[in-house]
């Protein structure tokens, strides 16, 4: 056998042995190693960062009072209206208390805010008395103010908003949290 043929044969054997080692030893070891994700509050905040999230929307059927002057002693008219009021939260403000030892994550929510842009259904507006000499712009301003005041008093609106926020955060985080052996806990 010539020297060149011997070198080619040795090279093929060495390559075959390296390929067998790679397939039998190295690849299965690499595939078995699971990449551990590090869970931090900032990572979780990025996951739930969907800017301002409207967490609840309520329709109010209200009656607002328009006054003749700023003393609010004499009612000019009453305005029946329908309005939509939203509660929202800035998702960037959510914090997370992470207990690595017990593998738990507790979301800490910021205060839920009422949206200032109340939507008045213009078609639902009716006045008592029918012709009180009031402009549409003033009617809408009076209705918006009344709807915001009523929404601020509503514990139901805030409870629904908080529950919807909890469900949203849970839906966004559960796949990541469970995949890393953690669980979400709530207050």
How would you describe what is shown here?
With 187 residues, this protein is α+β, with helices and mostly antiparallel strands. It is built from 4 helices and 8 strands, in the order ααβββββββααβ. A hairpin with a 4-residue loop joins strand 3 and strand 4 (104-108). The longest helix has 30 residues, at 3-32. The chain is elongated. It starts with a helix and ends with a strand. Residues 30-36 have low confidence and may be disordered.
User: How many domains make up the coordinates?
Assistant: 2
- The total count of helices amounts to 4
Proportion of residues in helical segments: 40-55%
Largest sheet, strands/sense/barrel = 5 strands, antiparallel
What is this structure, in a nutshell?
Helices cover 43% and strands 27% of the residues. It has four helices and eight strands, in the order ααβββββββααβ. The strands form two sheets. Strands 1, 2, 5, 6 and 7 form a five-stranded antiparallel β-sheet that branches.
Keywords:
elongated; 4 helices; three-stranded mixed sheet; 187 residues; five-stranded antiparallel sheet; 43% helix; alpha+beta
Detail the topology: elements first, then pairings:
Blueprint: H1 3-32, H2 41-48, E1 52-67, E2 75-90, E3 95-99, E4 104-108, E5 113-114, E6 119-120, E7 126-128, H3 136-153, H4 155-179, E8 183-184
Parallel strand pairs: 4-8
Antiparallel strand pairs: 1-2, 2-5, 2-6, 2-7, 3-4
